[in-house]
Amino acid sequence: MTKIIFVIADGLGDRPIKEFSFKTPLEVANTPNLDNLAKEGITGLMHTVDRGIRPGSDIAHLSLFGYDYQKYYPGRGVFEVLGIPMELKKGDIAFRGNLATIDDRGVIIDRRAGRIESSLLIPKRMKVNIEDVTFFLEPSVLHRVGVVMRGKNLTSDIYDIDPHEEGVTPNRKIAKNKSISSRRTEIILNKFMDYMHDYLSKNPENIKRKKQGLSYANFLNLRGPGEYKEAPSFLEKYGLKACCISGADLYKGIAKYLGMDVINVEGANGRIDTNLNAKINEAIRRLDSYDFIFVHMKFADSLAEIGDFEGKKKFIERIDVSLSPLLKLEDTVVFFSGDHSTSSKLKMHTGDPVPALIWGPKEMILRDKVENFGERACQEGGLGHFRGITLMNELFNIIGKQHLIGD
Amino acid sequence: MTKIIFVIADGLGDRPIKEFSFKTPLEVANTPNLDNLAKEGITGLMHTVDRGIRPGSDIAHLSLFGYDYQKYYPGRGVFEVLGIPMELKKGDIAFRGNLATIDDRGVIIDRRAGRIESSLLIPKRMKVNIEDVTFFLEPSVLHRVGVVMRGKNLTSDIYDIDPHEEGVTPNRKIAKNKSISSRRTEIILNKFMDYMHDYLSKNPENIKRKKQGLSYANFLNLRGPGEYKEAPSFLEKYGLKACCISGADLYKGIAKYLGMDVINVEGANGRIDTNLNAKINEAIRRLDSYDFIFVHMKFADSLAEIGDFEGKKKFIERIDVSLSPLLKLEDTVVFFSGDHSTSSKLKMHTGDPVPALIWGPKEMILRDKVENFGERACQEGGLGHFRGITLMNELFNIIGKQHLIGD
Q1: In B25-57, which positions are buried (b, 16+ CB within 10 angstroms) versus exposed (e)?
Q2: pTM, entire model
């Protein structure tokens, strides 16, 4: 059976950049392997959710895997904690936590506390009891912390504590309505915020860093509240045995949510120095035991989000180098794209379409004329414009496994 | 009023074929008329149902005519029996029957009994009574037999008896649930299967053929159970007086279901030697009395399904020859495409898009740059990628008959 390697470069697409003579990072990057994949494959532009829709990475990935996010999105917190991995029981509320820095007035001055390593401050399997509710905390990559809240009468139908900007105070009024569970969840979370502020402020590592003029974290921002939902597994939905190779916890969590096996690769850490070659090589090794291998590459997005278009270009070149072994594969279909575009100038995800390519056996793929991989080159691709939700059907059809409807 | 000739070449699209230097049958075929229609028209790629969706011809045609199959699909059996034509009353269960060959253990060894002529074995207006239920049988093209089951408390919500593969026995457990009608339908159909096996085994023609080493049919496989549904007629929906020119019963049945007149053309028989020229000439003659003329050409699909890509190419060339008179028409819009792609290598329908063209008066059509008709040439067509369900609106709009929504 023909296998599928499904590579997502987070935040791949971008907009014209003046310093690049109005080309994009992908367009100026030297990408001989991507160009060859495009030349031997079929290309197009993908609107992950829909035209002009600006998705978070979580909803983008659900769509890419063919799951309607309006039905199956459990909230980002669920993905984050599953990816760490942390245990999640029915009724638990899961959050993504971000270590942050606040000033004496409580105003956020650094939403990511200089991307401090959370393991410096949060011990493994940390537990905090507030009244009859238990919080479970687990350090994750860089400033990220997984948080699970366990107790009776709690709800995930609350606003983020994280105001998603600097210069303001965290949200304390997070109840969305006057229900008992909403009010109760707000009260408990406010006490937890205060507890964590106190705990972090007294942390010797933080005190030391503050003295040394280094970034320090004295607040834990919470966002993406969610509760576990049931979704049909990838195996149930497509009959494909699937695994995930990712450094970042969110993607591992999405994979776990969809019943994919999560494979940890030495050196694949979701950071700028992540070992991309090791990921691709591991993916190829796993072709023997899996039908569908999802490889996630994080950092082009992170660089665009801080406006480092030069860094994004270089990271794309490193991605390109890692892809070289794919071109030698037989009886394998490769999909390569991003989960969304990220503008290095706007420093945010955009709803711009992402260039996409499908490469595979010569008798499976109707090659188009596109010979370079980029935002504009793919405007002329044979796949045209398509939505992410239809992608799995398209790949499933290409490998000849799509079921027939009608007679 | 501008008229529409709507030509569907079944299973038209294909994939790159090694023996054709990785071109498709349509791409290597010599098709000067299709190329001229493309050159003078506008082209694109059609996803009959949706991207990557692999439709049967029945659901594909409903979509092409603008009917949502999820609402209006009555099961293939209904189309088959309407097309023969057989009478269908409310509450009747209709099946497509296929004459097949089974061995002594009851295992299917030829699902189509060498495409034997059913009229050799099944008399016209054949009737079989099993308990209080009457079966009506009618021979159709090649190995096909129309079957209508009439009685009280029957249901079409059952599985196919036909297992759709060889080397296994027909399904006898066909009840989908434990309802009385489901169980009753299963029992009666099992008795009918045994009756037909006995009837066919004793048939002198079969006995003679078996002795001579020819293919013979000793079993009647049933599939596509359906019950009559109401659908708005083509005239009600579009205000167009429509007719159908087809050799194969399925398409006649779909046409009848949608209230189109069915026109039988001498020599148009749904087989490889079908008279394509006669069909197109008849279509042109009927422009005086009809607004919309649906012409169906079957055999490219049948050849691809047996892996005969060379034959498919030649059949496409015959189709092309037949289309020549269309290029001289005035005040007529021609639509030409397939109902789906059929891969000659995979020997099955695929969800690959089908090349499509719209040709017509110079002031109605925004000609694109495409000068050849084929899977890849149409990747650059001015229609882009579109879904079958939107096609009728598009044609209706081109002839200036689309109604206004809003004010």
Answers
A1: bbbbbebebbbbbbbbbbbbbbbbbbbbbbbbb
A2: 0.91
